[in-house]
């Protein structure tokens, strides 16, 4: 446990991601968003629409991280089983929530509120609702688990709703340094020396190819701006010495 | 265990994905690719560049699925620790592999083969190499775990190298049906009836919004083309009845 550190996991629920049908954009969005408010995402998992899989992943993740953010599986169809799985993971009951039902009725006419749509008002006992200004059907928050929709636009407004209520860590700062077209092998030894000299920083090298040429970047991350600036200066000097 | 079913997990290794810096394109590519050759991806995990995390995830996944495909962490820098973590997970030694070294020397001049670059020739004992026609440094395959690079172009050629050697399941077929602009709540009950009538199929509803309007799709998936066609026809008839 690092002081000032708040950790999170993202649990993406949905067969459509695992089949390669849908590209999961949510976990990237959430990780990026959380980092801006000082919360570190330490794990992402994608599991199918299978209750025992969701329960097992949820229990593994909620015991390890300060927060778990789930996406997907809270709509009206038979494969939307997230709310029941969350209730099971927490060992609590689940029933139709009058607050959630009232929200649904802001958008759905009473005569159109069929059994399937009413399922979206099923909320585990003791959960707080998460607002959904777009399509009204709420997410919820129970213990350290925040349950959100899978549709990106809806997930994003739900995250906006919970963000102000989250415990924030000390914001993580970063410096990205272009590796001047050098291959990783040329600067790996220098970078290892830097990692040893600045153990309080996370130092990564991210190789990529652009038009067949190396376009590598070095990223330094940490909570102390002065330490970060000193390390960045030493990194740049190290690279200039190799160029 | 379903007969003819071959399962896989993808393990993405890298702080850069968890920080939201880099968008993971590999797991989507792999899931889609595997489905085409009859292998079902059942779980995706993203873990940081921390040995104990990689070992724990690897051991959890390799015991549950027929194959595990990892990406990332096999370059020359200090944060590239995947090969060591895999050796540890399997309880085997790791050393410089003459075959891997020979491959590196196809691209790197002997005088440029420094200690950092030589690390890319470290391969767990008993592993087979996976070819990398792009930048030569190989991946490897040990037990049911295939270890590939994180750079997408390199990962993709490595996957091409291993694909013909994998056990393939019966190819999964799918039908995607537009929900005619209907909201999920309108067809959820009908879809649940269909799911009960065709228990051998996976039936999902995938909501999305386009320009503020519902653009939902229903996807039916299974191994028997005749069953799939019959279910698709019933789905279309059900939707037409609601339109």
Automatic annotation (TrEMBL), chains A, B:
CDD domains: cinA. Residues 9-169 form the MoaB/Mog domain. It comes from the Bacteria. SUPFAM superfamilies: Molybdenum cofactor biosynthesis proteins. This is Competence/damage-inducible protein A.
């Amino acid at each position: 446990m690092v002081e000032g550190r708040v950790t999170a996991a993202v649990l993406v629920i949905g067969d459509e991601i695992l089949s390669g049908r849908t590209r999961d954009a949510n976990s990237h969005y959430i990780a990026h968003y959380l980092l801006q408010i000082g919360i570190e995402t330490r794990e992402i998992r994608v599991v199918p629409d299978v209750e025992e899989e969701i329960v097992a992943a949820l229990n593994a993740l909620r015991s390890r991280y300060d927060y778990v953010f789930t996406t997907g599986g809270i709509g009206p169809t038979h494969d939307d089983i997230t709310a029941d799985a969350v209730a099971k993971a927490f060992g609590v009951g689940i029933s139709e929530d009058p607050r959630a039902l009232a929200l649904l009725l802001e958008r759905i006419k009473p005569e159109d509120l069929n059994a399937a749509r009413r399922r979206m008002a099923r909320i585990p006992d003791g959960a707080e609702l998460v607002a959904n200004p777009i399509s009204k059907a709420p997410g919820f928050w129970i213990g350290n688990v925040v349950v959100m929709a899978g549709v990106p636009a809806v997930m994003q407004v739900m995250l906006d709703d919970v963000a102000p209520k989250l415990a924030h860590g000390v914001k993580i700062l970063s410096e990205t340094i272009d590796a001047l077209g050098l291959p990783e092998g040329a600067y790996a030894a220098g970078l290892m020396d830097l990692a040893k000299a600045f153990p309080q920083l996370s130092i990564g090298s991210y190789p990529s190819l652009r038009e067949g040429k190396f376009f590598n970047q070095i990223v330094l991350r940490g909570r102390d701006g002065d330490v970060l600036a000193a390390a960045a200066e030493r990194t740049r000097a190290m690279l200039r010495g190799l160029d």
